[in-house]
Write a structure and sequence with these properties.
Helices cover 37% and strands 26% of the residues. It has 14 helices and 17 strands. It is elongated, with a radius of gyration of 24 Å. Bound molecules: NADP nicotinamide-adenine-dinucleotide phosphate (NAP). NADP nicotinamide-adenine-dinucleotide phosphate is lined by residues 9-14, 42-45, 48, 63, 78-80, 84, 102-104, 129, 133, 300-302, 305.
């Protein structure tokens, strides 16, 4: 029996998958034992030239044609965005069609509702491509590692920002120059906000955390900060101190619950994440029995992402052929998500200060007043102004923020010029 596939979208990811289904159909069927047929494809502009030959009447400008067509057995959602994609996916699931999506924003915003709708309808909602592009990470987390008490998931899940940071570090170029180059090379979109603000990585962190801990973490529960405030000068200071800046997604289990966030962090140069270059993604999964697993590879791009989508399509097609109701691999239980203010981390600070006796003591006591303890201090420059670099021990977000405000008010402090978290398991 042939499984008839309907597409919502035929852009970068959808176009790559369509080409494969049209040009390599026999090879896919031989290897997987599943026959797939492209039945309906919704796009915004049916007049646009497409580099894949589709039969007459396959293209439509109305995406509802795809989800309501009784001859479509399975829906692939690669149009992106929340609206209308969310309601279309819900309608497809409710009418008994399994859905495969690459849409991280949608899963992070409405995943719980959609997963429950899929379960109620006895069909699968699969989203391997939503995190890490071509890297298999969703199925390992939700199935292969279902029996592990995962303690932390941490990694680089946005290729655009990693490309920009790599260029800034290796070529010594400022942020805006590198962003423009990334846009020219196609590594960053014309509107790069979702990537550089950390929002794209936060959607992925929400999904990874939900699957790792079995507690639903929506996008709105993930604190995120981007890379646009980072300055080249701190990259140089950090390198001298043995660190590299990375945009990290971190989800970890602590005594008070799980903490999930995305922000730039200085990573020790010898840490494997420090050497992840360019648009590559890498995710560590940690647990008491497995120790550390590292998943790495191309985190985006039409072809790698289409491979992940196709894997899900074949999985869902096999379930349809087996005619057994699909069950969601993960059930979400209630749990506590730690408020971001209560998360503790180490910190790097760069302060412009007056260079005279007693200044360091004033600064140290201001930190102490706010329960921030200094691990190391370096001083750069001479004359009446100096640059102080400090690395702290673990301190709460709320305490560091209060300490920073107090430092800003000190007459001996010209400015707190940079504050960057340090991700290190050292005491
Ligand atoms: N690109 C990647 O590397 C990558 C990696 C991982 C995940 N993803 C995810 O995959 C999804 C698709 O990304 P993409 O890069 O392939 O996007 P894209 O290139 O912008 O393609 C979007 C497609 O959807 C169609 N479309 C958009 N809105 C529509 C509407 N209202 N009605 C009908 N068709 C509509 C567009 O039609 P037209 O062709 O007529 O414009 C286009 O074919 C997103 O959720 C994205 O986050 C992408």
């Amino acid at each position: 029996m042939t499984i008839r596939v309907g597409f919502l979208g035929a852009g970068t990811v959808g176009g790559s998958l369509l080409r494969r289904l049209v040009e390599q159909n026999d090879a896919i069927a031989t290897k997987s034992g599943v026959e797939l047929d492209v039945h309906r494809v919704a796009v915004r502009d049916v007049g646009k030239a497409r580099d894949v030959a589709l039969g007459d009447g396959v293209l439509t400008a109305d995406p509802r044609d795809v989800v309501t067509d009784p001859d479509v057995d399975l829906v692939v959602e690669v149009m992106g965005g929340l609206d209308p994609a969310g309601d279309l996916v819900l309608a497809a699931l409710q009418s008994g069609k399994p859905v495969v999506t690459a849409n991280k924003a949608l899963i992070a915003a409405r995943g719980r509702e959609l997963i429950e709708a899929a379960e109620a309808a006895g069909v699968s909602l699969l989203f391997e491509a939503a995190v890490g592009g071509g890297i298999p990470i969703i199925r390992p987390l939700s199935q292969s590692l279902a029996g592990e008490q995962i303690t932390r998931v941490m990694g680089i899940v946005n290729g655009t920002t990693n490309f920009i940071l790599t260029k800034m570090i290796e070529d010594g170029l400022p942020y805006h120059g590198v962003l423009a180059e990334a846009q020219e090379l196609g590594y960053a979109e014309a509107d790069p906000t979702a990537d550089v603000s950390g929002a794209d990585a936060a959607a992925k962190a929400a999904i990874l955390a939900s699957l790792a801990f079995g507690i639903w973490v929506g996008f709105d529960r993930v604190h995120h900060e981007g890379i646009d405030q980072l300055e080249q000068i701190d990259f140089e200071f950090a390198a001298n101190l043995g660190y590299r800046p990375k945009l990290l997604a971190i989800a970890e289990q602590g005594p008070g619950g799980i903490a999930v966030r995305v922000h730039p962090a200085l990573v020790p140069s010898e840490h494997p994440l420090a050497s992840v270059r360019g648009a590559t993604n890498a995710v560590f999964v940690e647990g008491p029995a497995i120790g550390e697993l590292l998943f790495t590879g191309p985190g985006a791009g039409g072809d790698p992402t289409a491979t992940a989508v196709l894997g899900d399509v074949l999985h869902a097609a096999r379930e349809l052929l087996a005619k057994t109701p699909a069950k969601a691999p993960i059930r979400f239980a209630p749990g506590t998500i730690v408020e971001f203010d209560d998360v503790a981390t180490k910190w790097y600070l760069r302060l412009e200060v007056a260079d005279r006796p007693g200044v360091l003591a004033r600064i140290a006591s201001t930190f102490g007043d706010h329960r921030v303890s200094i691990k190391s201090v370096w001083q750069e420059g001479r004359g009446d102004r100096a640059t102080l670099l400090l690395v702290t021990h673990d301190a709460l977000e709320r305490d560091l923020r209060a300490a920073r405000a107090a430092l800003d008010g000190l007459e001996v402090v010209g400015q707190v010029a940079a504050v960057i978290r340090v991700q290190s398991d050292e005491p």
